[in-house]
Amino acid sequence: MFKVAATPLAVLLTMGATTALSESGTYELDPGHSQVLFSYDHIGFSETFGMFSGFSGEIEFNEDDPSASSVTVSMPVKSMITGWDARLQHFMSDDFFSASDGDVVTFASTSIEVTGENTADISGDLTMNGVTKPVVLETTLNKSAPYPFGPKEGTPTLGLAATATIVRSEFGLGAFAPAVSDEIELLINIEALKAE
Predict the structure, then answer these.
(1) pLDDT single digits (tens) 3-45
(2) Rounded to an integer, what distance in angstroms lies between the CA atom of residue 10 and that of residue 159?
(3) Which pLDDT score, from 0 to 100, does residue 164 have?
(4) What residues contact residue 3 under an 8 Å CB cut-off, 6+ apart?
(5) What is the C-alpha separation between 29 and 70, in angstroms, rounded?
(6) Residue 113 φ/ψ, nearest 5 degrees
């Protein structure tokens, strides 16, 4: 019921100067190795999880001025994975998203603040359920190196992780709060490869 677009990508923007990979250009998300996990407290009995995967996005990296770089991500609402069909259908219902096939969650970075050698806070606009709100992702650059094998061998590649907390009621998704927690924890892992 809560998506966050893969914002960690933007950490690259601020870290290019300190990593081995600093080529300007477009980096595309690897949909097979990029996930957004969400979790929430269910009436105090359990912590429940869901995931988005297979989404798309890209980084436009400016080597000369990393702060001028940008990141955008788009996730279809119906790409949510819950592990239980009845829960997924409930999230897609009028209680939450009233989801149609074309509905997407998007993220677009607005600014980046370097917080350490391999960390940054990435601010951006998260649009979900027809509402746009600012969100900050605490992001870590895991690795920046050429891909080591297979058809992608030698391609400059980034690995990033981020965490964030959003308040679902701010996006019109507040059903059953606070019994079911209003705050949603996000864990994001991204791989992005330089486009040819």
Answers:
(1) 333 333 444 444 444 444 457 789 999 999 999 999 999 999 9
(2) 11
(3) 98
(4) 36, 38, 52, 75, 77, 80, 105, 128
(5) 13
(6) -120, 115
Amino acid at 93: S
Question: Reduced to 3 states, what is the DSSP secondary structure of residue 190?
Answer: strand
Prediction pTM value: 0.87
**Residue written as token pair 């507040």:** 174
25 closest CA partner among 67, 63, 65: 63
The answer to whether 36 touches 49, Cβ cutoff 8 Å, is no
50 with 187: CB under 8 angstroms? no
The contacts of residue 103 (CB under 8 Å, 6+ apart) are: 76, 77, 78, 97
- Would you say 37 and 49 are in contact if contact means Cβ atoms under 8 Å apart? yes
Q: What is the DSSP string of 20-62?
A: S----EEEEE-GGG-EEEEEEEETTTEEEEEEEES-EEEEEE-
Instruction: Please give the span between the terminal C-alpha atoms of the chain, in angstroms, as a whole number.
Output: 35
Q: Pairing mode, if any, of strands 35-42 and 46-53?
A: antiparallel
> Position 27: which residue type?
Y
Dihedral, 127, 130, 133, 139 alpha carbons, nearest 10: -20
For residue 137 the two structure tokens come to 């992702």
Between CA 101 and CA 124 the distance in angstroms is 25
Residue 41: per-residue pLDDT = 98
